[in-house]
Amino acid sequence: MPEPLDDAFRANCDSPGDQIMQVSRTVVQCRILPPPDMAAFLVLQYDGALEAPALVVQKETDAIDDRFLVEMSYFAEVIQKSGNPRRIYFKQRSLDRLMAELLQATGGIAAND
């Protein structure tokens, strides 16, 4: 695992309400509480349960030979009335740029879409 990237990812998940979640051996998430107006929008727009949605930044790392492939993604997660989570993917250039800079600052190469 690329330690500088993992350390930087975890260090940047430090705002009040942020939570690091180790989903699996290769997947770690930073779960962020959205502002109240955004939370209300997500629940109403996506027919969510009355449970706080989360904004999620996810890092998945796979080892290939002597190198690592890292995929960074972000999405909103809204708990549905059935109890199952629904992921809502969206595009935000500033987040794309921030993730590319994080990869490059820790010795990686960012791929372009």
* H/E series: HEEHEEEH
Query: Count of helical segments?
Result: 3
Q: What average pLDDT do the residues reach?
A: 90
Broad structural category: alpha+beta
Which percent range describes the beta-strand content?
Answer: 25-35%
In words, what does this structure look like?
The protein is α+β, with helices and mostly antiparallel strands. It is 28% helix and 35% strand. It has three helices and five strands, in the order H-E-E-H-E-E-E-H. The chain has helices at residues 3-11, 36-45, 93-105; strands at 19-22, 27-32, 54-64, 67-79, 85-89. Strands 1-2-3-4-5 form a five-stranded antiparallel β-sheet, with helices on one face. The longest helix is centred in the C-terminal third of the chain and has 13 residues, at 93-105. It is elongated, with a radius of gyration of 15 Å.
Topology record:
Blueprint lengths: L2 H9 L7 E4 L4 E6 L3 H10 L8 E11 L2 E13 L5 E5 L3 H13 L8
Antiparallel strand pairs: 1-2, 2-3, 3-4, 4-5
How would you briefly describe this protein structure?
This protein is α+β, with helices and mostly antiparallel strands and about 110 residues long.
What are the key terms here?
single chain, 113 residues, alpha+beta, five-stranded antiparallel beta sheet, 35% strand, elongated
